[in-house]
């Protein structure tokens, strides 16, 4: 099953060029309200004995609005939508015509998108994650979040800022799979239409509720 990710809402953080990653993450969580961008994602699976790790690349668009709404649309190489309306998290796989839904309140420790879009402050985030700054690398300031609930799919999340702009999201799951999302063309907006985060179940789709 394609990974539950995604990520959410990422913004420019003016005036924080000299801040460390944790300060930039805190500023993002308290100041960002809505936004949209394009992204590319690279997923690397663990290497098997005698073989190199498999690498898959995808791309698409995302949007978010606080509190707790986000939407990822994967356009290449597969057609998939991940959308949260504030109460329900939905994943739609167009190839399978399959919809999977779960209560969004159960997802905050399991999806990076919920991590970034749902928590309203760094203090709120600390209720679910152990967060810290990491050393500067690749010209970016980094923050790390490790779920306190060790039973979820996510092992750790790293968030990278370049200057005053949040640029990279890295996710490692419990199976050793690593996903790297890079964001371009971010637009900060005061709000987005409510219909942005609505999802109509396609006719004939299989629906799985967890």
Automatic annotation (TrEMBL):
Keywords assigned by UniProt, alphabetized: Chaperone, Lipoprotein, Periplasm, Protein transport, Signal, Transport
SUPFAM superfamilies noted in UniProt: Prokaryotic lipoproteins and lipoprotein localization factors (SSF89392)
InterPro entries: LolA/LolB/LppX, OM_lipoprot_carrier_LolA-like, OM_lipoprot_carrier_LolA_Pbac
Signal peptide: 1-19
Location of this chain's protein in the cell: Periplasm
Principal subcellular localization: periplasm
Sequence similarity: Belongs to the LolA family.
Function: Participates in the translocation of lipoproteins from the inner membrane to the outer membrane. Only forms a complex with a lipoprotein if the residue after the N-terminal Cys is not an aspartate (The Asp acts as a targeting signal to indicate that the lipoprotein should stay in the inner membrane).
Matches recorded under PANTHER family: OUTER-MEMBRANE LIPOPROTEIN CARRIER PROTEIN
Assembly behavior: Monomer.
Record-given protein name: Outer-membrane lipoprotein carrier protein
The species this protein was found in: Comamonas sediminis
């Amino acid at each position: 099953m394609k990974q539950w990710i995604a990520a959410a809402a990422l913004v420019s953080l003016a005036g924080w060029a000299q801040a460390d990653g944790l300060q930039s993450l805190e500023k993002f969580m308290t100041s960002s309200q809505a936004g949209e961008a394009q992204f590319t994602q690279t997923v690397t699976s663990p290497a098997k004995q005698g073989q190199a790790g498999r690498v898959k690349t995808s791309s698409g668009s995302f949007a978010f609005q606080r509190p707790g709404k986000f939407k990822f649309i994967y356009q290449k190489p597969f057609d998939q939508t991940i959308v949260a309306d504030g109460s329900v998290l939905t994943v739609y796989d167009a190839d399978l015509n399959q919809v999977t839904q779960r209560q969004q309140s159960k997802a905050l420790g399991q999806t990076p998108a919920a991590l970034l879009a749902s928590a309203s402050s760094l203090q709120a985030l600390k209720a679910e994650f152990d967060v810290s700054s990491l050393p500067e690398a690749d010209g970016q300031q980094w923050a790390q979040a490790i779920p306190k609930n060790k039973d979820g799919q996510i092992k750790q999340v790293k968030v990278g800022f370049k200057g005053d702009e949040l640029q990279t999201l890295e996710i490692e799951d419990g199976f050793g799979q690593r996903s790297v999302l890079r964001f371009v063309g971010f637009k900060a907006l005061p709000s987005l239409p409510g219909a942005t985060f609505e999802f109509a179940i396609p006719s004939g789709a299989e629906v799985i509720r967890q």
